[in-house]
Amino acid sequence: MTNGWIDIKNTDMMLIMGGNPAENHPCGFKWPLEAKRNRNAKMIVVDPRYTRTASTADLFLQIRAGADIAFLGGLINYAIDNNRIAKDYLLNYTNAAFVVKEGFKLPEDGLFSGFDPSTVAYDTATWNYEEGGDLSRKSADADPPAQKPGAPAAAPPALPANAAYDLALQHPRCVFQLLKKQYSRYTPEMVERITGIPRDLFLKAADLFTSVRKNGDMTKAATIIYAVGWTQHTFGTQIIRTAAMLQLLLGNVGRAGGGVNALRGHSNIQGATDMAGIFDNLPGYLKVPNPTDSDLTTYLKRTTPTASKPGPWQSFNYWSNTPKFMVSFLMAMYGDAARKQSDFAFHYLPKVDRNYSWTEIWDNMYRGSVKGMFAFGMNGVMIGPDQQKNIDALKKADWLVVGEIYPDETSEFWRAPGTTADDMKKINTTVYRLPCAGFAEKDGSMTNSARWLQWKNAALPPPGEARLDQDILAQILLRVRDLYRKEGGKFPDPILNLTWPYTDPEHPALADVAREINGRALADLTDPATKQSLNAGQQLPGFAWLRDDGTTSCGNWIYSGSWTEAGPQLARRGTEDPSGLGIFPNWAWSWPANRRVLYNRASCDSVGRPWDPERRQVWWNEDAQRWVGNDIPDFKPDSHPKDHMGPFIMNPEGVGRIFVPLAGLADGPFPEHYEPVESPVQNPLHPNQSSSPVVKKFTTAADKFGSPEQGFDVVCTTYRLTEHYHYWTKNNPVNVQLIPEPFIEIPVELADQIGVRGGEKIKVTSARGTYAAKAFVTRRIKPMTIDGKKVYQIGLPIHQGFRGIQEDAERNARTPANVLTPTVYDANAYTPEFKGFLVKVEKA
Amino acid sequence: MSQATLEIRAISGHSGSVPGAGVRREFDVCKLIDTTTCIGCKACEVACLEWNGLSFSETVFNNSYQTMPETQWNYWNLIKFNEHEREDGTLQLLMRKDQCMHCEEPGCLIACPADGAIVQYVNGIVDFQQDHCIGCGYCVTGCPFNIPKFSPTARKVFKCTLCVDRVTQGLEPACIKACPTGCLHFGTKPDMKALAETRAKQLREYSGFENAGVYDPPGVKGTHVIYVLHDASNPELYGGLPKDPHVPWAVSFWKKPLKWIGNIAMIGGLLGVFAHYLRFGPKIEPADEETPRQGGAAPRTGTRDPGGRP
Q1: Which DSSP letter does residue A662 get?
Q2: Among A185, A202, A694, A744, which residue is least crowded by beta carbons within 10 Å?
């Protein structure tokens, strides 16, 4: 979330799309309702199904799963056409005025410039800004100073330090004009053809959402709220990009009641992401080294951005501090072994040579190259796409270690339905199931969607032989280390020299770990600006203290400040809210630096006054010559507004990116609508390039895809129910009583067509598998017309599997929903396409 | 520490009258359910089950998120889900938390023949005392909302108590405590009524629900559970909420006029007997005609069934 849960109460307008917070985040959903009750805020819900969230909306639109970019692109087009945009904000706080290099091509035919079919990837050299100065007065001239032709492309492309710009926003290659051109194709008629939302209804929603910028009014704020309904597509990252662009265009980012707000699906998903839950980053979103990074200097040169902006503007470019973050991280990892003369032990870090995302790991296991797996805190067989492929992959592994609180489908993959006694004899995987502690049986912090680190205490000890996850992992590490110490190995140093500074090494206290993550001084330090000093060994007050000379250590720079000398900031429970904006500055601790709304400099106009005097977050205090406010300013505190420093300090441009240059995204600097890999229609924008050109297709025998011609013509989507929590609560009698068995939601018309009534069994088949359950015949999903073709959508909850109360009593079909879903993923975030795949539906 | 919920009768070392004497009064309590902000999460159902220690039961999916058609003797709080297509083709998913309405004129109490089996407290809570329940089921007939449910094992009738055990301690009912969205409120009847009317007005003025209103049916002299409805002119849409509930006429007739007619007839009979005595004097019986009468009524059967109350 750029903002936070409570902040939603400050909004005037909500677009809830790709998420179903009433069902999946019922406690957080009080804040949208507060906004409705207290501010008469409007709520627009766009979803393939009329959900319980939709039941509280002012306007509901039923969209075809996977058509989100078309809808949001249509909103951008509408906002520009009707002048519902925040002109000053756009000009000063985004890259709308930046001029893009000649040779960049928009995807009218489905491809941006630079596509290489042999590598199925883009050469992003043309996705860059023009070098040069102010082109404002030359904007009539369609052909500005071009680069010298034939200039050798030697060094890898980099952002120009002095980006060309046109403050009149008229240059045909300025970002704003390109944006306008790109989305001029997303007319209400095109939106209707792709999304199935009737033109009039779309216009009603577009008018309502953009009404916050009616007549240039800047006081109101609109928020966009989403969840995995946006991420679980082969173009998921680009859907979220489109939302971010729309919010920049409307001037809603950085503002109370605004922003782009991802609702996390578990209590600590944000924390997992922050702490490097994904293979291609290190804690704090530092980039993971790759094989070209021969030493630390090379790595830092590659990963530390330099400012790229119009000459007269300033850019804080906060990632220029990457060396401090990285060296402090290495100090935390390798302690005494990390010395300046040893290149801070940089060579200990693995160099990641290719994609090791979740789907790839299971594909590798299926192909036989991954031989063992630790599965903690997840039920891999259930969560992955194409469940049969995952089960077959585990059959080929030598060993599997599962840490769980219930007997789950992963640890019992070998007795999945359909496995005969003979099959079982052929499975040679050794499975170790370790009983672990449940969430109430361990302390530690969880980071919520609002980026708050909140400490919790253990309520009771783990039962029986169950152990804390950290104890299990610690003891495995210590024993493996002993083996390396005794027997040596190819490269034992990173394991032998890993710091393990905990009081009880076999039972590391999470408080110790949290203190290590916050970081401490390794030498006596003095801040040259404030003259404050720290003694060696003291906890760091925040990431501003980090050094790149080995005198500080910090496990995750964005968490620095969470556990200081003043104690565990993340355990604070102060309930005061002086501003009334729901900031609660003394409740827990929010990264970064305890600020609650990111980019909050953008809540003020260019001279530093809040856009809305009623919702004052931060402002420029001329007397103090500082930024002050109710929230912690997300900005250089002493940068005078006259200096024109951009509010988006994490971008080298200093401004928000409407156009993402270079390799920021794998599939284009602007989002373009592509069809899901399995789609009922060819892409109406460019039928010859229907789905995303850079999607990787797996090639094992298990990877099968269906098409309408093969009879797979119903769009299917998967989701969660409010009554259950993933795959756990099927073990709890109360939840089972609330929703006892799986079902498939289908439209009344489809039920009539196949001749079933509610509660009768139906069978759903995709190219990969078959799922049978009772039909939930409803009017909450209506048949749609997509590009002139009648299309049905259905949906099924993911909760039931083959272990649980009902499952063990043989009261359901014992098939997980993911037998149906395909193994394909988003090119940027590697999230599988669980939403919007094709099936056929029959009476069972 | 003083118990703020209890009135003080005597006080030590204090000159003058007892503070608060004659000032305190019992408030009429009220639960407000704003159906327009109910998200059907069923947290209230679970809280009710757990606070009241009700037993689990097996359910079956039946084409709805609602897993049982009605409240049960061991399931006192049930959200009713109703898909409703409006005239303009737009859809509504109406969700209403169903439970005892705690009528000001409780049909169950009026119908009940067992001494003390149903009481109405001064704060308006209608509560069943299973110790005194004879399992006759007349309360089921007396209720216009189909709430009291007979347990075949305990052979008694059960329903929502408005968490009377919590309320007497100054706590809100368990369902209110669990509600995540602020759709449920608890307070005095006038406060809840005012809050409900304010919300209904907001819905009429800003959300386009021109028939939004408050459900507090006068036919049972008002209820201690009130609803805000999107469309108060059509309460039946919300899983059969009666438009104009009354205590059934048979129960009313039986327990009111019929009872009085019976009383008058009985008193008339007695008066007649007395007049006859005055006029004719005592009748002289032959001395040894009958054995003495066996004394008393049958022993009470209302002992507490240990397995009865769950």
Answers
A1: G
A2: A185
The CATH number of the structural domain formed by B29-247 is 3.30.70.20
Q: What is the DSSP-derived secondary structure letter of residue A559? A: G
CATH topology of domain A6-265+654-664: Dimethylsulfoxide Reductase; domain 2 (3.40.228)
Q: Residues A311-349: pLDDT tens digits?
A: 999 999 999 999 999 999 999 999 999 999 999 999 999
Token output for A32: 């949208």
The pair of structure tokens assigned to A65 is: 């799963």
Residues 6+ apart with CB under 8 A from A323: A300, A304, A548
Give the burial class of A755: count Cβ atoms within 10 A of its Cβ; 0-12 exposed, 13-18 middle, 19 or more buried: exposed
From CA A220, how far away is CA A717, in angstroms rounded? 35
Q: Which residue has the tokens 């290149």?
A: A343
Listed by start position, the domains of chain B span 29-247, 248-282
Residue among A665, A676, A717 at smallest CA distance from A229: A717
Q: ipTM beyond 0.90?
A: yes
Residue of A nearest to B41 (CA): A722
pLDDT tens digits in sequence order for chain B, 310 residues long: 333 455 666 767 777 776 666 655 678 999 999 999 999 999 999 999 999 999 988 999 999 999 899 999 999 999 999 999 999 889 999 999 999 999 999 999 999 999 999 999 999 999 999 999 999 999 999 999 999 999 999 999 999 999 999 998 889 999 999 999 999 999 999 999 999 999 999 999 999 999 999 999 999 999 999 999 999 999 999 999 999 999 988 887 877 777 778 788 888 888 888 888 888 887 777 666 555 454 444 444 444 444 444 4
- Same CATH topology for A6-265+654-664 and A687-843: the answer is no
pTM of the model: 0.92
Report the relative pairing of strands B118-120 and B126-128 from DSSP bridges. Answer: antiparallel
B235: cis peptide before it, omega within 30°? no
Chain A residues interacting with chain B (CB cutoff of 8 angstroms): 22-23, 26-27, 29-30, 33-34, 36-37, 40, 50, 52-56, 58, 60, 721-723, 733-734, 737-741, 743, 757-759, 774-780
Query: If residue B263 lies in a helix (H) or strand (E), which one and from where to where?
Result: helix B257-280
**8 A C-beta contact, residue A127 and residue A96:** no
Amino acid at A444: G
CB pair distance less than 8 Å for B61 and A58? no
Strand B213-215, strand B78-85: pairing: unpaired
A66, A73, A681, A698, A817 from A765: Cα distances, Å:
19, 33, 19, 20, 11
From A29, A33, A758, residue closest to B63, measured CB to CB? A758
Q: If one looks up domain A358-494 in CATH, what number appears?
A: 3.40.50.740
Angle at A224 between CA A223 and CA A225, to 5 degrees: 115
Partners of residue A30 in chain B, C-beta under 8 Å: 180-182
Residue contact A733–B39, C-beta within 8 A? no
Q: Domain ranges in chain A?
A: 6-265+654-664, 358-494, 687-843
Six-digit token string for A694: 């850079």
Q: Which residues pair with A604 in a beta bridge?
A: A610
User: Phi first, then psi: what are they for B279, rounded to 5°?
Assistant: -75, -45
| Closest by Cα among B78, B74, B40 to B58 | B74
